[in-house]
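Priority: medium. Attachment 1 of 2:
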């Protein structure tokens, strides 16, 4: 009978692996809110405990404390841009990265009315009364009367 008594040692070396995915918890932001937070950003990475730095391809945005947000003084306008695309890149401590695109939807809010530079009275000044809408239509002033006879049934 043949016996082998080998004591082999296998050493496994952990290598850095790139982040696998970037997740955004929300994809909407209200218009006209400077510095608004879009949502929380998380990274899935096979290397548990790995830390990441972030960049965003749109200069109006930043990621602070794992939140995608508009920079101070930056706001979006639904009427100009109802949605936009951003690319978030996460880089791990070993320099490996993952980029992920997201579409951000801008919520429309009721905009406050704005006053034009001139009032209606200023715009109408100097025009003939007929152009100002003050000249009455003679036909509109005639009263129409209708007479109906009651009939017994």
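Attachment 2 of 2:
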């Amino acid at each position: 009978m043949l016996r082998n008594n080998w004591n082999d040692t296998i050493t496994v070396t952990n290598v850095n692996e790139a982040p696998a995915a970037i997740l955004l918890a929300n994809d909407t932001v209200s218009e006209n809110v400077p510095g608004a937070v879009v949502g929380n950003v998380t990274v899935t990475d096979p290397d548990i405990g790995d830390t990441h730095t972030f960049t965003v391809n749109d200069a109006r945005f930043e990621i602070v404390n794992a939140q995608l947000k508009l920079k101070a003084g930056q706001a979006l306008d639904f009427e100009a841009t109802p949605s936009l695309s951003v690319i978030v890149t996460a880089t791990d401590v070993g320099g490996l990265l993952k980029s992920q695109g997201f579409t951000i939807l801008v919520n429309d809010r009721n905009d406050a009315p704005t006053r034009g530079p001139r009032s209606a009275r200023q715009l109408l000044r100097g025009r003939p009364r007929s152009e100002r809408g003050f000249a009455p239509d003679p036909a509109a002033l005639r009263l129409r009367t209708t007479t109906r006879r009651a009939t017994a049934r």
